[in-house]
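Thread: quick sanity check before group meeting

JM: Hey all, I'm pulling together slides for Thursday and realized we never actually wrote out the predicted structure for the chain we discussed last week. Dropping the sequence here so it's in one place. If anyone has concerns about the input, flag it before I start.
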Amino acid sequence: MNAKPRNYSSASSSHVQYKLSKYLILTLWLALAGGVVPQPGQAANPPASAGQMSSSAESKYQEAMRQAREAQDAHFTVTALKYAQDALKIKPGDEAATNLQNELQAEIASRLGQARPPATVPAPPKVEPKVEPPPVAAAGKEPASAVPELGALPAMPEAPKATKHEVSVSGDFLLGEGNVTMPFGFSLAEDPFLGPNVTKSVAKPDRSSTYYGGTVSYSYGQAWYLDLGYIHGSSSGDTDVALGGTELLPSSFKIDDDWYQVYVRYAFPKLRGKRFSAYLRAGMSYVDAELQDETTIPVLGLYRQTDKTTDLLGNVGFGVGYLLHRSKNGRFWTFLQAEGEGFYGNRSQDSKEALVNAGFDFPTAKIDNDLYGGIGRGTVRLEYRLGRSGLLKIFGDGGIQAKFTEINYPSLGTFNELLWGPYVKVGLRYAF
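JM (edit): ok, ran it. Output follows.
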């Protein structure tokens, strides 16, 4: 009978399992007792000592200080400040880290002071800005921005752009009331036959007027300005003509005058941007005017006068402004303005009178007048500034203007003229 072979591998396996079970039970008991059981063939790792923890903190401190100095050398000022503050968290009160932090804070404050207009931009918030570490530049390449960390600060208003040139265009309108001087009999008195019977006179009839025009200005340096202006006026009214005797003849007149002006204006640069502003200006005015007056005279027929005048004036003036209000966004501005001007010059008149249907042809009389006076204006200005920089401005003025003139007629004396009424001006300015 063949005997079956014994299975020694099964017995061996049971023996190994028994040994392992005893080892695991012993290990579990030691662990429950609080012991530390090393792995076979290994020694137990002792806990970290106090000296080793201090060395780790010192290493982190040195690394933070190194990162701070490298960021400072690369002009990443806010990033450097962040690392300096990390170093202080590891070593509170450390002298080197404190000095570096103070130096970086002073540099940031200096940059913000140069970038922001004084007294208009609020101080930076005390909340420490969140800053990302500086980008690592590839070999041979510079970082994308020289000072990128300033972008992490709160947005600041755009600083005023430095400009040299300024141009402006404006149009104005005056609706006036007042009086005007008109010579009568000067041409008739030139006739050798009728002249001895004619009395020269100067009338001061009331008039209603409208004036409108425009001004173009240019400045280099925004201190000295050149102003070129044109104004056209139309006036009308009624008056009585006295040609001698006691009878007064009713007539109607019309005056058209054109003003051509050139001025040099100086605006005080130290007052620019202040609450008060002021300017001085001087220039010349050339005025070309034509007067027509006519009436129907009983018996003699139609009377007509044509008077062409030319004025050449020298002008000196000033202006002051006061800022009343500025909106929070800096776009709307309101000003009070007062302007004054004095003038002196000469008027040349060619006066020709005619008695139509009477067969008389009278010569032209030449009259020379000295005249002087002044112009005053008080207005409120509303200004709106366009764009982020505010270099383009739209403005409008509204107020009152008055003009007073003294005119001397040889051998007859001095007569005055007055014109006043509401005044409006609109325009725009652009600096570049």
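AS: nice. The two ends are 123 Å apart (CA to CA). Helices lie at 8-32, 50-73, 77-90, 95-115.
JM: adding both to the slides.
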